[in-house]
Write a structure and sequence with these properties.
mainly alpha
Length: 110
C-alpha cells in the first residue's frame, strides 16, 4: 500500500522529504538530469543540486513522486522560485508592486 503523507503541515512535508521514496526519486532525477533547467534556458551550464516540484506538493499531493512534475535546479534558482511562490515577488519583474498598485487603486475608488 502506498504511504500517504500529510502535505498540509511543515512536519508532514519534512517526513516526506526524509522518506526512502523521495530520496530514491531525487537521486534518480539528479543522475538523469544533472544540470539546472533554469540556467540552461539562459545558456548557462550549472550543476543542479535541488529536485524541485513544478506543481507544489501542497497544491497536488498526488504528484509528489511523479517524475514529470520534477525539475532539477541549482540552489540560487530554487531559492528564487521558492521566494517567488512564498511572497508573490519575482526578482525579474514587479509582480508584488503591481499587486500593491491594484490594492491602492481599489481603495481610491471607495
Amino acid at each position: 500500500m502506498k504511504k500517504q503523507w500529510d502535505f498540509d503541515t511543515v512536519e508532514g512535508r519534512a517526513i516526506f522529504y526524509r522518506s526512502k521514496q523521495w530520496r530514491a526519486m531525487r537521486s534518480f532525477m539528479l543522475s538523469e538530469n544533472p544540470l539546472c533547467v533554469e540556467c540552461k534556458k539562459k545558456g548557462i551550464i550549472k550543476v543542479a543540486c535541488d529536485c524541485d516540484h513544478i506543481i507544489d506538493v501542497k497544491d497536488d499531493p498526488s504528484r509528489c513522486l511523479d517524475y514529470t512534475n520534477l525539475q532539477m535546479l541549482c540552489k540560487p534558482c530554487h531559492g528564487k522560485k521558492t521566494r517567488t511562490r512564498q511572497t508573490g515577488y519575482n526578482d525579474n519583474n514587479s509582480t508584488l508592486y503591481n499587486k500593491m498598485w491594484d490594492v491602492k487603486k481599489l481603495l481610491r475608488k471607495k
